[in-house]
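[SOLVED] Need 3D model of a two-part complex

Original post:
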Amino acid sequence: MTATALDSRARIGLGFPRLVRSEWIKFRSVRSTLWCFAILVVLTVGMAALLGALVDPEPGKVLQDAANRQVVNIATLSVGFTVLVVAVLGVLIITGEYTTGQIRSTFTADPGRLGALGAKAVVLAVATFLVSAVSTWIGVAIAVPLQAAKGVEADLADPSVFLPILGASVDVTMIALLAFAVGLLVRSSAGGIAITLGLLLVVPIILQLMGNLLGAQWLLDTAAFLPDAAGMRLYTYSVPQVDDASGTIVLSGWAAFGVLAAWVAAVAAFAVTAAKTRDV
Amino acid sequence: MIEIEHLSKRYGSKLAVDDVSFVVRPGSVTGFLGPNGAGKSTTMRMIMGLDRPTSGRATVNGQPYTSFRDPLRQVGALLEAKAVHSGRSAYNHLLGLAATHGIPKARVHEVIELTGLESVAKKRVGGFSLGMGQRLGIAAALIGDPKTLILDEPVNGLDPDGVVWVRQLARRLAADGRTVFLSSHLMSEMAQTADRVVVLGRGRVLADAPIDEFVSGGSGGGGKRTLVRTPHPDQLFTALGSAASSITPREDGAFEVVGPDAQQIGTLAAQTGAVLHELTPMGASLEEAYMALTKDDVEYRAEATR
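Solution:
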């Protein structure tokens, strides 16, 4: 058989950059990815614009601190919804391969498996972060002048303002990776989405209820280490070590990032170990 | 070259592949036959590193498949149903595969052309017919221009043109010196394509032989088979006597004679004055040989479970 196209190239073989390129081609060529990102952009930009136009300051002179807090809140309020979108995306990106049989093609091309999975995670993380960051800052660009017209002049150069706005995209990215790891572990779209959304939405409420009902402070403290609570610290304006007199644990920004990273690493470790040895 | 050594795979209590050993050599087409559930697909998946053997090993071109730095260059595989995300186009699927090995885009176009997918290449795979899915699977298998090809039921769902095309492709790849290993449940297809067959039943190798040898060895009774049509059967068959090991009347009035060849029967007919309307040597078919072999397997199974 003629193979002219192959003869021209010096080295044909696997490499991590090539796997990333392959995963990028796969990532951008299915509709679920594009839909999730479209929803992410609309939610992020739309909510910032809407809140920027609708939220009014307290009457009287607006203090710098209050202005900063208000703009950070306006820019990041959508995160509570967008994390759910990327949770679905992160699960589907891998379970879609298992449910369609694509995974056999993927693991035939990279029988070591880890390279392909790593490349997929890199593509998911980079794409999610860029889309989230760009749409968040577009939202900021729309909301800031709207708020300034109402006398709310936030100082974007202040780290306590731009760090939480950036942190919103970090949170969204970490949740996407957590969902990816869950999806890899359970291999079923329905199961993966149920577990991830349950972890983000249901478990915190249960801990809260149980903690209050039983008067168990340790349950309330545990809730601070859940992915949603830890993630929220990444985009919250002005982080105190301890929020109020009740003494409930509140993580600092970096500690929260560490907790979130630990969640991702722990679930990913299980998932990758399983994926490496499982029959497909 | 594919080498299988004492390969076994257990799923729970079921031994799907049971101590299987055989070699698939380059430069020829080796057929892989066996009833459904015999372990053919499982064996192929273990060769490709997708399923882990319970024991034993499978190597391709001297190494385990998982150890290659250029796996798609070594082996191309079409394994059972569509192994493609249904939401992606055929072109993007192939492009994604090619990208893993730095295979140029021109090669993607080559395999699309080779498999006749030009008109549907940009369409989503979810809407493909079974035949189109098979062509895409074959395109994916060929993308790295591999030395070894493993095709599981490649003609499944193909139209007659497609069947002929796969047969010619397999012959051509083998003529290039490549190793071609393909499974099929269509015996006639295998008879026309394969040089050698490996037959699997209940996870065990029942036969591993060149196809001619397999067919003649499985014809039963060890003699020639001849179709005889005569208005004087009593006269002729009395004369044949013990030379024929069996004489079977057919529904159309003809007889299948096993034992003497056509020349002997014709001579006897002339000597006895029996009129012959037809005298046709019948080759034993692969199908019959296969049925005879797997029938024993079925009987063995029935006894074993009693």
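Edit: Confidence is low (pLDDT under 50) at residues 302-306 of chain B.
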